[in-house]
From TrEMBL:
CDD domains (UniProt xref): AdoMet_MTases
Protein name from the UniProt record: Spermine synthase
Keyword Iron-sulfur: no
Keyword Cytoplasm part of the UniProt annotation: no
């Protein structure tokens, strides 16, 4: 029963972590979400310290401490998430951090206590723990997408109460009470849908947050209300209607990524008013028969394609809830997504292009990630839409004289996109000085602020062929008619940095380095397009050093008192090393599987389940008798990881045409092989400590230290990935496992 209970607690804690990230993504900007959740997970280490201190006060093992911890865990879920949900937005990160951390502290206490008391079967305990987390990563995807966020919260309470019930049954304690609590939570699943919808829509912190779209509208003395809400594993999607505006509604993702949805009567004669907008420019010349729109959002870009007489329009939207929202308001938008000319797919645009056999006259990406315009949105988030390799994929799917267009937010986006285009055209064999002939650049607005020009909503059009004089002239005429500002047009508006590149006055490197921000193009190995900082992100540096400092303050006194320096080095290395491999590995599979949620859930599930199986077999002699100085599984982790670094791109290329199910299976098998050996060192260390009476009491501390260092490792992996790429981050993890392999049995227990 104890193993089943551990698995269930692990399932619930993993799902809680994802729910927390989902709720805080709707409440905060991305980097604040990352900050809070990182510190919250650090609560696992605090739980380990509490367990150690309690053990020091009483040498008697009391089983009720375990089932009390599980009961408190289930209550803490509903308490923490409930308070976060009903609390008006507070401009105080500490409040949200404390609320988020509570379940992790309780979970850390439970697990560290279990590993101390049953350390001799640590392989089975770790197996149960990781298997639970692995299945939790799949369950949370299914639950959020099908049950919504309210019922998913109730679900984790039910799961943890079942764990409590099983433990009570084993020790014959308070069985009726646990059954009663379980019945209460089960009833919570059957609340009528209309009440559940009201609960999910009325997220008080979200509604009262003045930094998000709804709050910004209120600050401008306008009245607005949410008329549609849907939560899933990817986002919270809302439709906002502003009072007095009967022609437009706003589709938002996590309260900020705004996409307008226009009133449309379905008649093409009503589209002429859109021909003065900057987004229409790609359709103002040449052939527009087949159009691909990546990120159509509320359907606005479909209208521009229709206005340009496009006959076949394909829209690819990664957030399926946005598609549901547009279809929900079909009477308002003219049922734009169900027109005979239009086909809509709910998947990642880059992945769609890679597997497509079609060629398009126009490919348009318009404000695909709109919160980046705030300069604080997604700098820490990978984005494969705007890499050098992505440009190659798009241009390979253009017709002979096709057009690729990007609507950006500001000068930063524009400059980095131009650098990316220049590099890709150069890779095709076009001389740098000739690349400006393939581009035209416009701006919706240029404002003079503090003595400096600020470019708003620039549009970049790039072709496989140089612009003709006739095309340039046509673009200039359309821009003038719509009061759009030309920044660069070959032949007719030949000026600015591109002019100097054309004249040979400016090299590509000089162009990239000529800005106060980083304009170096993103690549598939380092796909952080919205990271404009020169050097390591200050946010990541802050998180890294504060968690490291917190770990030193929390763990050093006990480590020093117990003279446990060698064990602490071992478990620190494991915590950091595991995450240095796990996070880049998941990120590498995003493009292959076509969606970040799929990669996170299925790849992580494979890795954790593989690690759990490896943990179960970690006591086998074949993995432990090679040498007293070299630990075989850690060496194998290093070797397999280097093998994956060298072979993954080839595997992805060879299986690119496989079905999604086949790709998921391939991904799962690859990471399970890696995970199998990654799961062995931790239970081995716990078992060694449990066999030494003097050292067994520090097991909760080592468990907590390992958890805290996994947070440090996750931050470090992102820092390395952003600065040097995924390959270097994974290589760092491989090298760390190589060092772990040298930490023999004597080193683990030595003073």
């Amino acid at each position: 029963m104890i193993l089943v209970s551990i698995s269930l607690v692990s399932v619930s804690l993993f799902i809680y972590q994802v729910i927390l990230n989902r709720i805080y993504s709707a409440l905060f900007w991305y980097h604040y979400t990352f900050l809070i959740t990182s510190f919250a997970i650090f609560g696992l280490g605090i739980g380990g310290i509490i367990a150690y201190n309690q053990r020091q006060k009483s040498e008697d093992f009391k089983t009720h401490s375990l089932y009390k911890a599980i009961f408190l865990l289930s209550i803490s879920y509903i308490f923490s998430l409930g308070i976060i949900y009903i609390l008006p937005f507070q401009n105080n990160v500490l409040i949200y951090l404390i609320l988020a951390t509570l379940p992790f502290i309780i979970g850390g206490y439970f697990f560290s206590t279990v590993f101390e008391q049953f350390g001799k079967i640590s392989n089975k305990l770790y197996f149960a723990d990781l298997i639970g987390s692995g299945f939790g990563s799949i369950i949370v995807l299914l639950s959020l997408n099908n049950l919504g966020i309210y019922r998913t919260v109730i679900l984790i309470c039910i799961i943890s109460v079942i764990a409590w019930l099983l433990l009570n049954a084993q020790f014959k304690k308070k069985i009726l009470l646990s059954i009663g609590v379980l019945a209460v939570f089960l009833l919570g699943l059957f609340i009528p849908n209309k009440y559940v919808y009201s609960i999910e829509q009325n997220f008080i912190g979200f509604i009262t947050n003045k930094t998000k779209t709804l709050g910004s509208i209120a600050k401008s003395n306008q009245k607005a209300k949410i008329v549609y809400t849907k939560w899933n594993a990817f986002s919270r999607t809302d439709v906002i209607k502003v009072e007095g505006d009967n022609d437009e509604m706003i589709v938002t993702i996590d309260g900020t990524a705004n996409a307008p949805m226009y009133r449309f009567d379905g008649k093409k004669s009503s589209l002429s008013k859109y021909k003065d907008d900057i987004e229409y420019l790609p359709f103002s010349f040449g052939n527009n028969h087949k159009t691909l729109i990546i990120g159509p959002g509320g359907g606005r870009d479909i209208l521009y394609a229709l206005a340009g007489n496009s006959k076949e329009i394909t829209g690819v939207e990664i957030n399926t809830s946005s598609i549901d929202a547009v279809r929900h308001f079909k009477e308002f938008n003219g049922d734009i997504y169900n027109r005979p000319e239009v086909k809509i797919y709910g998947e990642d645009g880059r992945n769609f292009v890679r597997k497509s056999k079609e060629k398009y006259d126009v490919i348009l990406l318009s404000l695909v990630m709109t919160n980046a315009s705030q300069n604080i949105g997604y700098a820490l988030s990978e984005n494969y839409l705007f890499t050098v390799e992505a440009l190659q994929d798009y241009m390979n799917h253009l017709t002979d004289n096709g057009k690729l267009a990007f609507l950006a937010h500001d000068e930063e986006d524009m400059s980095k996109l131009i650098a990316t285009i220049l590099r890709q055209l150069n890779k095709k064999g076009i001389a740098i000085k000739d690349t400006p002939k393939y581009m035209a650049i416009f701006a919706k607005e240029v404002q003079l602020m503090h003595g400096k020009e600020h470019i708003h909503y620039p549009l970049i059009i790039v072709k496989n062929k140089p612009f003709s004089q006739l095309e340039s002239k046509k673009l200039k005429e359309t821009a003038d008619k719509g009061k759009i500002i030309p920044l660069y047009i070959p032949y007719v508006n030949d000026k600015g940095p591109l002019y100097h590149i054309k004249q040979g006055h400016l090299t590509l490197v000089q162009f990239e380095n000529g800005f106060s921000f980083s304009a170096t193009p993103a690549t598939d190995d380092k796909p952080y397009f919205y990271d404009f900082s020169k050097g390591v992100s200050p946010v990541l540096v802050f998180i890294f050093f504060f968690i490291l400092l917190g770990s030193v303050i929390l763990f050093t006194p006990i480590i020093s008192q117990e003279k446990a320096f060698k064990p602490s080095l071992y478990f620190t290395s494991l915590g950091i090393g595991y995450m240095l491999i796990e996070i880049p590995l998941i990120q590498k599979f995003i493009l292959y599987l076509g969606h970040p949620v799929l990669a996170f859930n299925y790849v992580l599930a494979g890795l954790l389940i593989g690690s759990g199986i490896g943990a179960y077999f970690s006591n086998a002699k074949v993995f432990n008798n090679l040498s007293n100085r070299i630990y075989l599984p850690a060496i194998l982790v290093m070797a397999i990881n280097i093998g994956l670094i060298l072979s993954l791109n080839l595997i992805f290329k060879m299986t690119s045409d496989f079905s999604l199910v086949s790709k998921i299976l391939i991904a799962a098998i690859l990471v399970m092989i890696q995970g199998f050996f990654m799961g062995m060192p931790f239970p081995r260390g716990i078992k060694i400590l449990s066999e030494n009476k003097k050292k067994s009491k520090i097991i909760p501390v080592m468990w907590g230290l390992n958890g805290a260092m996994s947070v440090v490792g996750s931050v470090l992996s992102i820092m390395l990935s952003m600065e040097f790429g995924f390959t270097i981050a994974m290589l760092a993890g491989a090298l760390l496992y190589g060092l772990i392999s040298l930490q023999s049995k004597n080193l683990v227990i030595a003073k």
